[in-house]
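Morning, I've got a small favour to ask if you have a moment. I've been staring at a protein lately and its backbone has me curious. You're getting the sequence in one-letter code plus the fold written as tokens. I've dropped the whole record in just underneath, so have a look:
=====
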Amino acid sequence: LSLTRFREDGSIVYFTASKGYEPGGYNLSNLSGSTSLFGFDKEEATSFELGWKGRSEDGKVTGSLALFSIAYDDRQIEYQIEDPNGGGIVEGIVNLGDSDQTGFEADFSVKVTDFLNLSFAAGWVDAEWKSGTVVSGVDLGGNSPPVVPKSGINLSLDYLRPANNGSNLAASFQISHNGSYEGLQAWDPV
């Protein structure tokens, strides 16, 4: 579902709702001594987004803002564990539980001159496992899923100017920072 409203100033306000899934499957590696395949189920996600996109009358400034919410059912998580039987590192995917994410994203770009562009983007995410997500006997409810940065920013300056010989003179400078995120502690997926 997608609803869009075009405003008189040329900007748009939009709302989207969607539902999708990541298919299940089987892990290609098992713990040594195991003779059966270790499967995982599909992950489903329901998402909502409300946002705005616009630009200045002269087109030199563009921007967008978005609020989003995603509810995951049977979230798939990649894992790496040491095989207790000495078979090395075993990697796979497991359905760990249900989680929710809400967040905010913004980005703006300014054409400083005909050849110089300045861009800024930032985002923030609050993600947590729902109660009942149990790993090694511990309920992870309220904790953050692994590898979901809580925040991030990016600032870039790009210069692109045509040269006399038909090629372009280009230079770019970028600073990025991702906030902290949780890792997944060692645990037994089977």
The mean pLDDT is 88. The CA atoms of residues 81 and 186 lie 7 Å apart.
